Amino acid sequence: MLECTLIFGLVRWAVPIDKSGNTATFTTRGYNGQLPGPHIKVSPGDRVKLHLVNDLEPSDEYDPMITTCETKEHSQYGAPNGTNLHIHGLFDGVFADNTFACVEGGQKKTYTYDIDPRTGSALHWIHPHVDGSSFMQLYGGAAGIFEIVDPKLEECSGLGQLPATNLIVQYMRFTDSNGALEDALSNSVIYGGANPKTARSMLPLNLESTTEVGGGDGAIPDVFLVNGQLAPTLSIASNGFGRVKIVNAVADASGVLSFGFTGAAKQTCKLHVLAYDGIFISGKPRLQRSALIPSGGKIEVMVSCSKPGKYTLQTVPVYLDNGKTEWMDLIPSGKELLHVDVSGPPTPQGLHEHSFMTNGLPGPPAYYTSLIGKKPDSKHHFKIMLSDGDGENVINNVKFGDEGSMPGYAMASTGAPNSPVQQWKIDGGEPSDPDKAANHMANNHHPYHQHFQHFQIMRVSNTLWDTPSGAVAGYHSASPAPGDWLDTIPTLPILNYTVAMVPRFRGLMMIHCHVLKHEDAGMMTLTDTTSTAVKTHDGPTCEQTHTKESLCTDESSKSIGRCDKSNEGEWCENSMKCVCGLRTYGRNILFSSSAEEECSCQPPAWTEASCAMY
Ligand SMILES: [Cu+2]
Q: How far apart are alpha carbons 127 and 86 in whole angstroms?
């Protein structure tokens, strides 16, 4: 079993603001005294215990006007020192991923997660999720990578041979020229206090050395942080391939990360998409000129360059509607994400030598079987609209906490024991500024995110390109394609989606805008997947770990059978045993809970995992 302690508290951090070594120092809130928080690395089948220790003072210790975990209200900023943990992207239900908890300053909570043995390798991340303080805490830097690595999948797919790096992107704005922080600042959060531990300021706070770095006028440039620093370097061989996993942990509205090679590097270097939101795409790596993920999104790409040299992956613009519309809600262009140092003679092993090129990528885990072509029944056809014509922080015209959005609201129930296919239309409801629309520019995006499980894209209404002229022969667009599985997608009135899923967990699944400022202010709702009795968790069934069967075949993986009460204690595949035990589920997690028996294949001894601090 892996145990990690996450201490949520004050972090004093120096961030580089240029390449000459100038830094800006500030105090903020984060995990374990560092920015970003620790990188937690686990394997499928692990049981992971995360001890969350809130090292701050209670929210109202010095000011009774400040709301606390107890007194905060829905859809308002509050409980500035209250926190909790959310593993963004993890395939697990509300019992493990309890984002309703609020851990007040001075308190602790242990979160226990069982990583589904069928998960494979997946990139997720951790951030606080208290309704009211999630924006300020993520904006301040409380985020960390949560990575699941499946050694068997890595070896058999050939992906494990590639040099790899993980990047977590944060974007610090120390000045408020665009008003991004204004609402959160004025609505609930009070500046100052001599003791930074008790100051309830918006973040970052207590910025030091402003005159040195800002030329005397106090203006600090925006800082684009990759793993808490400036862009790192990945070394690869000529014609060799590097694997890059990226988390977009930017909390802000203008946080869409669009990136690619630019200028001459575009001719020499290639970018292939391997996975979105921790789920491998099906088929072979997808060649693109640029790739895009919204705030909260994750992507895995492969980079390669045909000649020795130093190249840079950086942020680039995006055009919609085949060049007619420029999307403005992005991290500005030209921010450096990764340096790629290509040296040595060309690698003898070209792309086509790798088994993932011959056999295809591993594809989604077995619990995400493709829903393409499956008809949803009419009762499970829903429309979800983020924001509205007035730009309010609502979903389907309701603020979280108002009537119609509270626990028990059955927006989509599983309905029948055979788990019908849900088909949802996800819309961005906030119209573009008319001036911008006249100039073919789009704005005001709201990234849709749901907890517990991913959804599969059936249809996308628009296409994203890295040039105004649109498609370039041989390259895929920057949009995810129908068939891809994601947990976070950017929406605009002109960029919406039809998605499908089969609910896999009982409970109240949270849906919200991943611009957390909008979420704290009410752009959140709950989906009740408990209203009719239905088998929870879909198994586990001791089946192939991934849909792609070409990965590895060995004799031990052939003992495939179900794991339920009837074969408790027997061996599943891959040296795992069928274990049964009580597991509680919150029918309505605010008021009651129930327990029921559940069986799953688990390693007889927990596998090695690491909780690296760097
Ligand atoms: Cu939003």
A: 6
In a domain, 215, yes or no: no
Q: For residue 599, is pLDDT > 80? A: no
From CA 67, how far away is CA 300, in angstroms rounded? 40
Question: Residue 146: which domain range?
Answer: 2-161+176-190
Is residue 105 in a domain? yes
* Cα of 185 from ligand 1 centre, angstroms: 17
Contact 421, 374 (CB under 8 A): yes
Residue 275's domain is classified under what CATH number? 2.60.40.420
Number of domains in the chain: 4
Give the CA distances from residue 82 to residues 13, 103, 145, 294, 336, in Å, rounded to whole numbers and listed in that order. 21, 5, 21, 26, 34
Are 349 and 262 in the same domain? yes
278 CA → ligand 1 middle, Å: 22
SS3 assignment, position 359:
helix
Residues 294 and 347 in one domain: yes
In the reported structure, the alpha carbon of residue 169 is separated from the centroid of ligand 1 by a whole-number distance in angstroms of 19
Q: How far apart are CA 154 and CA 579, in angstroms?
A: 26
Mean pLDDT score, 136-155 = 91
Q: Pick the closest to residue 16 from 186, 182, 327, 227 (CA basis).
A: 227
What does the pLDDT look like over 25-48, one tens digit per residue? 777 789 998 889 999 999 999 999
At residue 375 the predicted structure's pLDDT band, cuts being 50, 70 and 90, is confident
In a domain, 208, yes or no: no
The verdict on 419 and 520 lying in the same domain is yes
Query: Measured in whole angstroms, how far is the alpha carbon of residue 228 from the centre of its chain?
Result: 17
